[in-house]
């Protein structure tokens, strides 16, 4: 309740974590607002089906509010003039992310007759906003506003995916990622193996749980390795992959 | 969205580009070619001719038969443990149904070219921009290109907007040398470009258009000219597949005995992970290409045995160094700092 989880990937693709959280929260009966900036609805839908959840059905019954970034962007650019009073959530492309935040707030506020458990905001992925022209400060402001609204006022959770690279030259991205790391309650960091590419172990995941926001030494750090399969992901302790045992 | 990083002189990436278009023609897909450098009509005139089934099979069959008959008799004496491993296929010897083969020395016949609908976009011939779309602070060249693509997609019904159309076809889009100065973008010239986000915005909207319609796109970019690595990272994130071509022309690798059979390396930086949790990773990451008189092939790079009389330290280090460069992993699967791939 009221937790901010940061999904971070370095030199690998951490989107399997996004799929996991999406199906996890839907199955738990939470109301989910999914801001999907990088892939289309059908991509998530097909993977979710493999994981046992139907996104279309969730959308029908109002449990899932799906913002498909690619589609809204096209509507914004090539569509006819939008109706007044219904600004597109991607209006931010001019200045700040206020419209996006309003969209999130409206979709997660409890409507009459809602019986869902806590609201959840899921973002995939935040680094794309920088590519689209938003300033890093605007992105951080957006997250801050969302946190106040979703975590504190509505007692919900937020899960955000960012990409990061250790020797990256993308300073704006590094700024956003570092700042978010300091503010998260839980960080799931998917990384490539330090020894290179391996067919049986796709990477390692570092789980950092913040016990106190003041002292970093108290953080609980756990490291597992994982292998992604078609319908699920198996985790195991380091060095104990099925291929070795 | 296939993103190709061009090699230094653009020779080989152009070839790859033409292959993509030629495959489109042979499969009956519609084509859309955009360029600021060469007129699209010229590009279309120079597409490689497809090899007809029979002669292709025969040619490749002959070569393979010749090789096989030679080593069939010898069994391995020293490395006999390797005898049981399957023979490494470096080139396609069996004719697979997926894709076609092309003869680079011949040009595609104009009749074949005309058999599909061709759309082209040559930046310097476009009329001055009448914005019917909001430009969104994007470079005007890119904006015009997007508008043109979107118009073709909706007019020709690639996005399923015309229920009357019975036969749905695929649109193959090829964009040459995006990001170069000819498009009006200085991202390739300066370290701190004026508008670094034009390219990424363009790619995002293009991605949206591709996802919404039945189309596939290949883009070639002179990546070696882009100084700002941050842009390359963002661009990689926004593309489905990223392939880099590195040719040996003019570099010290041209004379390196390791690479004497090949003309360049293929770096696969990212492979698409669409509609599934996993992606299709091949066994090996080391790919090299070579341009024979008639064929352009991409093969697994295998180092020739070190048969020199003087096994000098220098050559060993070189080997290790190049092996290190070869096995840089691709972004969808994990890569690491040290390279002990296993």
From TrEMBL, chain A:
Write out the annotated subcellular location.
Cytoplasm; Nucleus
Q: What is its main location?
A: cytoplasm
Recorded metabolic or biological pathway in which this protein acts:
tRNA modification; 5-methoxycarbonylmethyl-2-thiouridine-tRNA biosynthesis
Q: Which residues form a coiled coil?
A: none
Record keywords, A-Z: Cytoplasm, Nucleus, tRNA processing
Transmembrane is among the record's keywords: no
Q: Which InterPro entries match?
A: ELP6 (IPR018627), P-loop_NTPase (IPR027417)
Could you mention a single GO BP entry for this protein? Answer: tRNA wobble uridine modification
Q: Quote the CDD domains the UniProt record gives.
A: Elp6
User: Per the record, GO CC terms?
Assistant: cytoplasm; elongator holoenzyme complex; nucleus
What's the short name of a Pfam family annotated to this entry? Answer: ELP6
What family is this protein classified in? Answer: Belongs to the ELP6 family.
Under which name does UniProt file this protein? Elongator complex protein 6
Q: Which organism is it from?
A: Rhodinocichla rosea
From TrEMBL, chain B:
> Which Pfam families does the record associate with it?
PAXNEB
Per UniProt, which keywords does this protein have?
Cytoplasm, Nucleus, tRNA processing
What family does this chain come from, according to its entry? Belongs to the ELP4 family.
- Report the InterPro entries cross-referenced here: Elongator_complex_protein_4 (IPR008728), P-loop_NTPase (IPR027417)
This protein's encoding gene: Elp4
List localization entries: Cytoplasm; Nucleus
The UniProt function text for this chain reads: Component of the elongator complex which is required for multiple tRNA modifications, including mcm5U (5-methoxycarbonylmethyl uridine), mcm5s2U (5-methoxycarbonylmethyl-2-thiouridine), and ncm5U (5-carbamoylmethyl uridine). The elongator complex catalyzes the formation of carboxymethyluridine in the wobble base at position 34 in tRNAs.
In which broad location class does this protein mainly occur, judging by the first location in its UniProt entry? cytoplasm
What name is this protein filed under? Answer: Elongator complex protein 4
Pathway(s) where this gene product acts: tRNA modification; 5-methoxycarbonylmethyl-2-thiouridine-tRNA biosynthesis
Q: What is the lineage of its organism?
A: Eukaryota, Metazoa, Chordata, Craniata, Vertebrata
Gene Ontology CC, one term: cytoplasm
Q: Name one GO biological process term.
A: tRNA wobble uridine modification
Q: Which domain of life is it from?
A: Eukaryota
Q: Origin organism of this chain?
A: Rhodinocichla rosea
């Amino acid at each position: 309740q009221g937790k901010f989880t940061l999904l971070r990937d370095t030199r690998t693709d951490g989107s399997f974590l996004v799929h996991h959280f999406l199906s996890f929260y839907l199955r738990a009966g939470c109301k989910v607002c999914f801001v999907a900036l990088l892939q289309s609805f059908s991509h998530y839908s097909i993977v979710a089906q493999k994981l046992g959840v139907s996104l279309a059905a969730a959308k029908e019954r109002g449990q899932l509010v799906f913002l498909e970034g690619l589609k809204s962007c096209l509507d914004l650019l090539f569509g006819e003039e939008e109706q007044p009073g219904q600004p597109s959530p991607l209006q931010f492309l001019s200045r700040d992310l206020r419209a996006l935040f309003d969209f999130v707030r409206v979709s997660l506020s409890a409507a009459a007759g809602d019986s869902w458990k806590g609201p959840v905001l899921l973002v995939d992925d935040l680094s794309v906003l920088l590519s689209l022209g938003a300033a890093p400060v605007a992105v951080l402001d957006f997250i801050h506003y969302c946190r106040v609204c979703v975590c504190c006022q509505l007692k919900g959770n937020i899960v955000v995916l960012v990409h990061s690279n250790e020797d990256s030259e993308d300073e704006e991205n590094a700024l956003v990622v570092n700042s978010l790391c300091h503010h998260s309650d839980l960080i799931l960091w998917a990384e490539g193996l330090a020894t290179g590419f391996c067919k049986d172990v796709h990477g390692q995941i570092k789980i950092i749980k913040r016990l106190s926001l003041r002292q970093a030494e108290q953080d609980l750090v756990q490291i597992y390795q994982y292998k992604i399969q078609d319908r699920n992901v198996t985790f195991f302790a380091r060095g104990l992959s099925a291929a070795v045992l | 969205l296939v993103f190709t990083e061009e090699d230094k002189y653009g020779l080989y990436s152009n070839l790859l580009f033409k292959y993509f278009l030629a495959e489109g023609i042979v499969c009956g897909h519609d084509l859309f070619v955009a360029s600021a450098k060469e007129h699209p009509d010229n590009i279309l005139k120079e597409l490689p001719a497809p090899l007809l089934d029979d002669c292709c099979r025969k040619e490749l069959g002959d070569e393979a038969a010749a090789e096989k008959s030679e080593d069939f008799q010898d069994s391995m004496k020293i490395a006999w443990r390797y005898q049981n491993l399957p023979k490494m296929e470096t080139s396609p010897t069996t004719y697979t149904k997926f894709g076609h083969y092309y003869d680079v020395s011949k040009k595609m016949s104009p009749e074949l070219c005309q058999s599909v609908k061709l759309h082209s976009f040559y930046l310097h011939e476009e009329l001055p921009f009448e914005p019917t779309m909001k430009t969104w602070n994007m470079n005007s060249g890119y904006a015009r290109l997007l508008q043109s693509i979107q118009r073709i997609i909706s007019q020709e019904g690639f996005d399923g907007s015309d229920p009357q159309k019975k036969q749905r076809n695929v649109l193959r889009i090829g964009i040459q040398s995006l990001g170069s100065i000819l498009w009006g973008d200085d991202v390739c010239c300066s370290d701190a470009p004026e508008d670094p986000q034009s390219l990424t915005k363009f790619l995002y909207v293009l991605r949206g258009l591709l996802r919404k319609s039945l189309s596939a796109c290949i883009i070639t970019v002179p990546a070696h000219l882009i100084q700002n690595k941050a842009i390359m990272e963002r661009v990689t994130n926004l593309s489905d597949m990223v392939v880099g071509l590195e040719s040996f022309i003019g570099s010290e690798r041209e004379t390196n005995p390791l690479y004497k059979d090949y003309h360049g390396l293929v770096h696969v930086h990212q492979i698409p992970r669409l509609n599934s949790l996993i992606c299709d990773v091949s066994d090996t990451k080391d790919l090299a290409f070579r341009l024979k008189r008639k064929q352009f092939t991409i093969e697994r790079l295998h180092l020739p045995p070190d048969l020199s009389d003087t096994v000098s330290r220098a050559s060993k280090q070189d080997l290790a160094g190049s092996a290190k460069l070869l096995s840089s992993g691709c972004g969808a699967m994990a890569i690491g700092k040290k390279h002990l791939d296993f």
